[in-house]
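tool_call: predict_structure(chain=1)
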Amino acid sequence: MWTKSHSIVTKEVTKEQMWKLFADVNNWHTWDNGVEFAKLEGKFEKGNYFMFQPKGGPKLKIGIIDATENKGFTDFTKFPLAKMYGEHTFEETPLGLKLTTTMKVEGLLSFVWRKIVAQKIVDALPEDMQQQIKTAKKL
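tool_result:
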């Protein structure tokens, strides 16, 4: 299994603002330049899923395997002979709100999917998380 994380601590947003940002899946394209579209029908909750298309990539069905309001969520994408998980947490600390995204890839072809999908996500996390904070501040 391959795992990479990125964290940032900020006093600019609250856990409630971050939750509101992510739970509004249908508007991810307005703040994430890498998203062509994301479409969720129903609630942002465990057991549901959304359709997602990264710019220049294929349409994907992404499951929500955990969602705890104002704390975080974990999504799941199935690839041929591999699975990818994205864990997003919001944790209050004495220094501010700690935002962490952890990407995990496992399975027989995990090395392939790490190279063509997950590593690009991880490489973009520092910039993407700054954009998330900037956008969430307005909520």
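agent: The chain has one domain: 2-136. Proceeding to next step.
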